[in-house]
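Q: How would the structure tokens look for this protein?
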Amino acid sequence: MVPRVKTGIPGMDEVLHGGIPERNVVLLSGGPGTGKTIFSQQFLWNGLGMGEPGIYVALEEHPVQIRQNMAQFGWDVRKYEEEGLFAMVDAFTGGIGKSKEYEKYIVRDITDIREFIDVLRTAIKDLNAKRVVIDSVTTLYINKPVMARSIVLQLKRILAGLGVTSIFVSQISVGERGFGGPGVEHGVDGIIRLDLDEIDGELKRSLIVWKMRGTSHSMRRHPFEITDRGIVVYPDKVLRRGRIVDVE
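A: Here is the predicted structure in token form.
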């Protein structure tokens, strides 16, 4: 049996037939407003409750804002930071302003992938982290798409080697059919795609597990909701032709 990492997200582990295989790197792909950041933060928060230290790599938002957003769902990570069980890697501010006073792990130049990996590796070893989220990995190669697969494979080699199970948040545009970068989908172990579609004048959220190395998984598109406590997935429901129906 392959060891599993439970997401703890209601309904998601049923869709994954038990959870994410340990050490897998999962691409969490979706357009704006689909819930990618909430999903990844919930994955880390639930890990903390299971005694698994986690790291959030902030590439798109200020670390202070991320902590505030998480707290709105009841995910106050400050006590875990004080206990050395959770850390934020600041790859957003570049150490400008007050970040250098408050943040322990700072990437000063995100175009320098070697520096990025060194800071991330140090944080993982310090915490003995078991879960890592990079939000979003797209930022690392958006200006050099030909390097996308190479960068993802470098990160995968480091993270899997350190025994970490990871989520790489990947941004795509509305209506885009891919997963966020040329060749990226071939460099990861799993792909979960989140979608937000207008159907009969109403926006509906759904997800599908496109692939997941090391486990079987649902091949259906399942609806999910974002509540005031985070994401809830409905494994017994399927989004089909714009309608939510029971799994047959």
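The two ends are 28 Å apart (CA to CA).

The chain has a mean pLDDT of 93.

Upvote if useful.
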